[in-house]
Amino acid sequence: MNKRIYLDNAGTTPMAPEVIDTMTEMMKNVFGNASATNYYGREAKNILETSRYTIAQSINAKDSEIIFTSGGTESDNTAIMQTAMLRQTEGKHIISTKIEHEAVLKPLKRLEKMGFEVTYLDVDEKGQINLEDLKKAIRPDTILVTIMTINNEVGSVQPIKEIGEIVAESNAWFHTDAVQAYGEIPLDVEEMKIDLLSTSAHKLNGPKLIGFLYERDGIDLPSYLQGGDQELKRRAGTENVPAIAGFAKAAELHSNDAIEKNREKYLSFKKALVEGLKENGIDFEINGNLEENMAPQVINIWFKGIKSDVLLTNLDLDGIVGAAGSACTAGSLNPSHVLVAMFGADNPRVYESLRFSFSIENTMDDIHQLVETLTKIITRLKNR
Ligand SMILES: Cc1ncc(COP(=O)(O)O)c(C=O)c1O
């Protein structure tokens, strides 16, 4: 078998060696509780605050606006549930989209059961919301608009700056799940008028179970977890300083300069993949499109007539890891809610699409091997 190739980086990424080195150093030498006033605590606090500064700078935020959390899920849950709890006397209406991650959709479902009303915006075949729909949906009692920056399955990028401007005119706060976007496209909370923003380190070659919630100064959401006064009383629980330092290192490795270089590299991967498949006569279409309003690191492809679970398993046997939005339960395919929102439940695309997502470790050789392997498998499956 050829060397194994990992192309499921939107699922999670391998940790960068620099991140591992930073964390190892911290785990060996910095064990103090950052809330303690003793020497060891002060040492940990120093690392914590230096990391916070690095992270805050990366999105043009103030240090006081960064709350470290256990990752994307906690940041999304906190932003949504705690906004609802804090603002419920002002209104009970929330706006979101049909293509959000479960870490947004599930808290919204819970709030609906509690008497809140949620408007889920449609998306078009490119995975884009319509700004006019958003404008029409906003009401005086809308307290929160939560719209993801980059979709994790197809990679569509929403017009965050325009959304921020629209929401800023209303009474609502604007939260964006930027878990797939942070470190892949430049984000500026001031320019984009974002009030709350969620991230997760393991999507950008950092450790798992660490992320942050950006919370605009003055918002002051109560801690979702009940306990100590850490993170300026906004997130109870002793901070994991080595993981936070690792996250800051990962953020440094994904500076805006690096983002630009990676974007070029990933675009050349996508072009090589598409051209290679075309040359080999494979029948496919991109879900979304190649470049415009698309995440650099994600491509989702409809392989016509080939069930996604079959293709995925065959690829895995040949050493290549991709992903399908649809999960196979007891022999039947559950189509992805994202592809259904884009194309409708009856479209074969929802059962026949795969996602490939890149990270800093991938090379053009990986893409050549992907083209070759896909061609071999698809030709074999078609000729069965
Ligand atoms: C868009 C999006 N939001 C939230 C999450 C959850 O993040 P975490 O795994 O850090 O809890 C993910 C992870 O897959 C994601 O892709």
Quick structural summary:
With 384 residues, the chain is of the alpha/beta class. Helices cover 40% and strands 15% of the residues. β5, α6 and β6 (173-177) form a beta-alpha-beta unit.
| SSE topology string | EHHEHEHEHEHEEEHHHEEHEEEHEH
* Beta strand count: 14
Compute the number of helices: 12
Strand order of the largest sheet: 2-8-7-6-5-3-4
Task: Write up this protein.
With 384 residues, the chain is of the alpha/beta class. The chain is 40% helix and 15% strand. It contains twelve helices and 14 strands. The structure holds pyridoxal-5'-phosphate.
Question: Features of this protein?
Answer:
single chain, 384 residues, alpha/beta, 7-stranded mixed sheet, 3-stranded antiparallel sheet, globular, binds pyridoxal-5'-phosphate
Task: Give the topology, please.
Elements: E1 5-6, H1 17-29, H2 39-58, E2 66-69, H3 72-87, E3 93-97, H4 102-113, E4 117-121, H5 131-137, E5 142-146, H6 160-168, E6 173-177, E7 196-198, E8 211-215, H7 230-233, H8 241-253, H9 256-279, E9 284-286, E10 298-303, H10 308-317, E11 320-321, E12 327-329, E13 332-334, H11 337-343, E14 353-357, H12 364-382
Parallel strand pairs: 1-11, 3-4, 3-5, 5-6, 6-7
Antiparallel strand pairs: 2-8, 7-8, 9-10, 10-14, 12-13
The structure holds pyridoxal-5'-phosphate (PLP).
Pyridoxal-5'-phosphate is lined by residues 71-73, 76, 101, 103, 148, 152, 177, 179-180, 200, 211.
